[in-house]
UniProtKB/TrEMBL annotation:
Pfam families recorded: Beta-lactamase
Protein known as: Serine hydrolase domain-containing protein
Organism per entry: Streptomyces justiciae
Signal peptide span: 1-26
GO molecular function terms attached to this record: hydrolase activity
UniProt keywords, alphabetically: Hydrolase, Signal
Superkingdom of origin organism: Bacteria
Residues of the Beta-lactamase-related domain: 41-357
EC number(s) given by UniProt: 3.1.1.103
Length: 374
């Protein structure tokens, strides 16, 4: 999984998906007593992750520390930045708006945001909302911009700019300074810009910021008390652990506390905060049809090819595991935080976990351990 050290924030579930996807050659073994999962999170700590918190259904465990200075342990109730897992929440809101007849996923971006996606070959009149959600738009990924990377992902730039506020239009403008990756609908490439634009569409359609709509439509109905859309708030609510990064292109060198930052740099592409229990509750409700009508849930789970054996739907990745189990969800990386949330298609078995470091640890091993007992 690519993380902040590769100059990407709020990064893709698909890297994880491709790593996990494998031919189904054995019957599912189930999770049993979760002993394999416990061993996998302890192995992640040995690999260099400061600490891990994990919840699978009604079982929780932790390993390592939440604070390198004091040695305080991680908590099963830790709240953390969830990075690109935010994308599933955003996609859910857009699909709800479609179900209400307030928009169509085949609407163009230009219809709702005239002139926003334009420049260097970008043309919002050729990009649909569906192409935003499944990353087939071709819109350049603003977090791959070199100046943006130096500003936010390397130590000198981060500590100078960590509290800056970046507006969605500002982030889209960074992307418009580059040529598109490909013509809309002709290929696939993950782009955080897609979801910045999607958040702007939500606001244009509803008259409310995307975060308000997520709160009203998802967080409050499901009682997700640990989940929030922080906007520009730089702190993580307690209980929470510290978040650590190397802020470098390598996995060596000093370790920095990066807990405080202005999440507007990720916005609707990856700015949310949650905990493992809430993430499991969210994906269980989503996959059981409590948030979307059948037609919209089917759309969400209709995947496109990503160049590997896994597929990407509308803010949702479908992952085939080595034991034949197929799970749905997303992962997310943002400074000092790597998170994964996956649930079986029937919503009966869920897993969510977080590493509070962004340079090491085998997330794939934790997933395989929980769902396959390996």
């Amino acid at each position: 999984m690519r993380t902040v050290r590769t100059t990407l924030v709020a990064v893709t579930a698909v890297v994880l998906s491709a790593a996990l996807a494998a031919p189904a050659f054995a019957a599912p073994r189930g999770h049993g007593d979760h002993e394999a999962t416990r061993e996998a999170i302890e192995a992640a700590v040995k690999d260099g992750v400061p600490g891990v918190t994990v919840t699978a259904d009604d079982w929780s465990a932790t390993a390592g520390v939440g604070n390198l200075r004091t040695g305080a342990p991680r908590s099963a109730d830790d709240r953390y930045r969830i990075g690109s897992i935010t994308k599933t929440f955003v996609a859910t809101v857009l699909l709800q708006l479609e179900a209400e007849g307030r928009l169509s996923l085949d609407d163009t971006v230009e219809k709702w945001l005239p002139g926003v996606v334009r420049g260097n070959g970008h043309d919002g009149s050729e990009v649909t909302l569906r192409q935003l959600l499944n990353h087939t738009s071709g819109i350049y990924n603003y977090t791959e911009d070199k100046d943006f990377g130096r500003t936010y992902f390397l130590a000198d730039g981060f500590f100078e700019h960590r509290y800056d506020t970046r507006s969605p239009r500002d982030l889209v403008a960074v992307a418009m300074g580059h040529a598109p990756e490909f013509a809309p609908g002709t290929s696939w490439k993950y782009s955080n810009t897609n979801y910045i634009v999607a958040g702007m569409v939500i606001e244009k359609v509803t008259g409310s910021p995307y975060g308000d709509e997520i709160r009203r439509r998802v967080i409050e109905p499901l009682g997700l008390h640990a989940t929030s859309v922080p906007g520009t708030r730089v702190t993580v609510p307690r209980p929470s652990s510290r978040a650590y990064s190397k802020l470098a292109e390598t996995t060596t060198g000093p370790t920095y506390d990066v807990t405080k930052l202005n999440p507007s740099l990720a916005g609707a592409a990856g700015g949310m905060i949650s905990d493992s229990k809430d993430l499991n509750r969210f994906y269980t409700a989503l996959l059981k049809g409590r948030l979307l009508p059948p037609e919209q849930l089917k759309e969400m789970k209709t995947t496109v090819a990503t160049g590997g054996p896994a597929g990407y739907g509308l803010g949702l990745s479908g992952v085939g595991l080595s034991c034949g189990v197929r799970v749905w969800g997303h992962d997310g990386g943002i400074h000092g935080s790597q998170s994964v949330a996956l649930t079986t298609g029937d919503g009966r078995h869920s897993l969510a976990f977080n590493f509070n470091g962004d340079w090491s640890g085998d997330a794939v091993a934790v997933v395989e351990a929980e769902f396959c007992g390996e």
